[in-house]
Specification:
heterodimer, A: alpha+beta, 3 domains, 20-stranded antiparallel beta sheet, 25% strand, B: alpha+beta, seven-stranded mixed beta sheet, four-stranded antiparallel beta sheet, 29% helix, globular
Chain lengths: 620, 224
């Protein structure tokens, strides 16, 4: 089943066809979905035609995989039965007892979908125009008709099933009982009992869908061995049968269309959608989603790592000139206020006087307000641990404030820095080896040399108050770890081939591995060269990064790859990569956002075709 | 029988995080069958990497040994050797500047070193060489270096993380046997005979020993 699902997912992600008619299933997604991922087939088909896709390396792979078991080979992904020009969805629906991972796809030709199952040797049954497939324990269910295909993977919530009242209600016992416990395995529940609403609904489904239970080989409680040593397996079977019945009920409701509240009623979801994006992921609340995925760990009870985090989304764009991923997250007023304070610092403009983009391969810049960060940090911690360790956190916060002079630290390390990666360099290192004379193989110690590859970088850190650093330098000089040179210092690292130079100038602390660079900085002769694009990215963002694969290509010594062939492949991949940019946007309202993008080479018609060419290249 | 070592030498944790290393085994054998052994482990070619590893407390889940710990464990080796029957004049040399460790000792009879060698090699976790022994028959003037590859060596090697496996690629093993008499023949084609005809040297990669592709056993016949 896995391979079929993998192939179907591959089709989701590469979905494309000529036949296009409006068939958006988004309205079928329930309003209480915790997360929704959308893949827009229409946008993808506009970037690459079906004919082109079928002829591509990936297209051929998918078709050959499906053709293997079919009685006639597939010539087009269009024949798989899905409407690849419409949108495909994944959504997560959770309650206190179960998590459903749902894959929803538009169907164009149900008979063709039937054929996929038939040829894959996966048995399904049909009632009316609805086909159903179940895995061995019925916790994985696929239903489809002429309009849509829904595949659900249901996962139980362990902490729910370990509650005493739930265990009693469902006749569950301790997995590994200390003493012999006689368990009643009946699922039957008195409907008058005080139970959660979702459970009542499901229990009624157990009764209603009896025929399904028989069809799908659900575990009959009478089949379960009464031996208490088998408690674990008995419980597992019992839980799976309960989950299976709930899942069946959920899928039946989905196809019956009884659920009237659609995700389209959720404004936040609607706002997160962008017609131009090829794929989007929307999360209603990180906290809720995190709790639904994470198992209940007793140690973490009461802690809330994502307290104050609201909804979030990510959008993936394949454009003519670039591939772009944008992300954004909404925070509570309290957390947003922290971000605003901490993010008020901008990158030191003077850093730009020491950037030469002809030399650099990449950079990473960040700007935070150290003083604000130190002041806000205890508050953030109390948000996470507050409900459990409120008093302890309160005391720790007070102690931290007492010990630290946030303002003084904020002057020493203001909070902005820029790391510029200039490539790799090779330094010669000597080592001891042995030589043997021909006469009697008597050994003689000899010194040999070899080259070691080292990074070449420049790091700049803003500092208003350098007195502490001056003292550290004086101490280092006394201990012979720091040597004074003309306008800069050399840090000696024992046995290391890496030379590190540093100096303090213009309220900037410079660290570099290049003697030429530190000479130029010290002598005021540094020649800067920076484009408007980099200038804007660096100065307008709290976090920014850039990497050029092309500039690195050809600069990696072959020793690092263990052979010319591997190096050639690495260089080919690096050369085919466009420039990569990452940056955060200024906080807007309570929304923190950012993006990462990669330029695509000029000879590529669009980003999708470029991605396919990369896949093909990587397999060569 | 002297007590067996209980713990692996911590320096071999460093070996796992070097980029290449050399193992050198030298035996000088007299006509009567006594002689000296010198075992050397040379990590000098990876000294920058080893030096940076030694600055850390642990790496990839392995505890990085301190200089003191390495010294202490080597002292244990020396103490063990000193207690071993037929072994005398035990000496160790540790060069932390270049990360070279060597242990030398004298033996009364070549069989004395068989037990010791096995334990030391086990301790060095060089399991491929664990079925290794030496015999010398003064009557017929024949020296035999037996070596049988064990599958355990490959199994142990396969358990290593890929980044640790990499270091064995350039690691080398050198054995030198020197005699008082001239060498009449040496069977292993990988071994070279010196100009003086009194020494045999075999230099090979450690990986070949692990995977069983290299055989270092040799039958050396000495001139009567």
């Amino acid at each position: 089943m896995n391979s079929l699902i993998k192939c179907l997912i591959a089709v989701f992600l590469t979905g494309m066809t000529f036949t296009s008619y409006a068939q958006d299933l988004v309205h079928k997604i329930p309003s209480d979905a915790l997360a929704v991922a959308t893949f827009k087939g229409k946008n993808l088909t506009e970037l690459m035609s079906l004919t082109e896709f079928n002829k591509s390396f990936t297209g051929k792979k998918i078709l050959s995989k499906f053709s293997r078991k079919a009685d006639k080979p597939y010539s087009s992904v269009d024949d798989l039965g899905f409407n690849l020009a419409s949108s495909f969805y994944y959504y997560n629906q959770s309650n206190d007892s179960v998590t459903y991972n749902c894959f929803l796809s538009p169907v164009k030709n149900a008979a063709q979908v039937d054929a996929l199952y038939t040829w894959g040797d996966y048995k399904f049954n049909q009632k009316g125009n609805i086909r159903s497939y179940y895995n061995s324990d019925s916790t994985e269910v696929a239903h489809w008709n002429n309009e849509m295909f829904l595949f659900v993977v249901a996962i139980e919530k362990k902490d729910y099933f370990s509650r005493p009242e739930v265990m009693e209600r469902f006749g569950l016992t301790e997995d590994y009982p200390a003493s012999e416990v006689v368990a009643d395995t009946a699922i039957a529940v008195d409907a008058s009992e005080d139970v959660p609403a979702d459970s009542i609904a499901v229990e009624s489904a157990v009764v209603e869908s009896e025929d399904v239970v028989t069809d799908t080989a659900l575990v009959d409680s009478t089949m379960v061995d009464d031996d208490s040593s088998n408690s674990f397996f008995k419980n597992q079977q019992q839980k799976k049968s309960i989950i299976a019945a709930w899942t069946q009920h959920m899928v039946d409701e989905f196809f019956a269309g009884t659920n009237k509240t659609s995700i389209l009623n959720n404004n936040d979801f609607l706002k997160s959608q962008d017609a131009q994006a090829e794929a989007t992921i929307w999360v209603s609340g990180i906290d809720k989603l995190f709790n639904s995925y994470m198992p209940a760990i007793p140690y973490l009870k009461g802690m809330s790592f994502f307290n104050g985090y609201g909804s979030g989304n990510a959008k993936f764009y394949l454009e003519d000139k670039s591939i772009r991923l944008t992300t954004s997250m909404t925070f509570s007023d309290e957390i947003a206020a922290v971000f605003k304070r901490v993010h008020q610092r901008k990158l030191n403009k003077r850093f730009l006087k020491y950037v030469n983009e002809d030399r650099m391969i990449g950079y990473m810049g960040y700007a935070l307000d150290t003083k604000a960060y130190l002041e806000e940090y205890p508050k953030l911690m109390s948000k996470i641990y507050g409900s459990v360790y409120a008093e302890e956190i309160g005391m720790a916060a007070d102690l931290l404030s007492l010990l630290l002079d946030e303002e003084a630290i904020g002057k020493v390390v203001k909070g902005d820095a820029l790391f510029i990666f200039n490539g790799l360099m090779q330094n010669e290192v000597s080592y001891k080896s042995y030589e043997y004379n021909e006469d009697n193989f008597e050994s003689k110690e000899v010194m040999k040399t070899k080259k070691e590859t080292l990074p070449d970088f420049l790091l700049m850190i803003s500092s208003e108050d350098t007195r502490l650093i001056d003292k550290l330098i004086a101490y280092g000089a006394k201990k012979d770890l720091v040597k004074k040179r003309a306008g800069y210092y050399e840090l000696s690292i024992p046995k290391s081939p890496l030379s590190l130079y540093f100096t303090i100038k213009d309220q900037i602390i410079f660290f570099t591995t290049s003697i030429t660079e530190i000479d130029d900085i010290a002598a005021n002769s540094y020649v800067a060269k920076i484009s408007g694009k980099h200038k804007k990215t660096l100065l307008s963002s709290n976090y920014s990064a850039y990497f050029s694969g092309k500039k690195l290509a050809g600069k990696i010594p072959s020793e690092e790859f263990g052979g010319a062939k591997k190096l050639e492949k690495a260089n080919r991949v690096l050369n085919s990569l466009g420039d990569i940019y990452l940056n955060s946007n200024p906080i807007k309202g309570n929304v923190v956002s950012g993006q990462v993008s990669m330029d695509i080479p000029a000879n590529q018609p669009n980003a999708l075709k470029y991605l396919f060419s990369l896949i093909e290249d990587a397999t060569k | 029988m002297p007590p067996k070592f209980k713990y692996p030498l911590s320096i071999f944790i460093l070996l796992c995080f070097s980029s290449c290393f050399q193992i050198i085994e030298e035996i000088n054998l007299t006509k009567a069958g006594s002689g000296t052994v010198n075992l050397t482990l040379n990590l000098s070619a990876s000294k920058t990497k080893v030096a940076s590893v030694m600055l850390m407390d642990s790496i990839q889940g392995y505890k990085v040994p301190s200089k003191q710990k390495i010294q202490k464990e080597l002292d244990e080796v020396v103490a063990y050797l000193k207690k071993s029957p037929g072994i005398s004049n035990v000496q160790k040399k540790v060069d932390f500047e270049n990360y070279i460790v060597s242990v030398s000792f004298a033996f009364k009879d070549i069989t004395n070193i068989n037990n010791v060698n096995q334990d030391v090699l086990k301790k060095l976790k060089i399991k491929g060489a664990s079925n290794s022994s030496y015999t010398y028959n003064p009557k017929i003037q024949a020296f035999r270096r037996s070596y049988q590859h064990t599958k355990d060596a490959v199994a142990q090697y396969n358990k290593l993380k890929p980044e640790v496996k990499k270091i064995f690629k350039d690691a080398s093993y050198t054995s030198i046997y020197r005699f008082e008499q001239n060498i009449a023949s040496s069977e292993n084609t990988l071994a070279k005979i010196s100009k003086s005809k009194k020494a045999v040297m075999l230099n090979t990669g450690v990986l070949g020993l692990i995977n069983g592709k290299t055989d270092v056993s040799n039958n050396i016949t000495l001139a009567k």
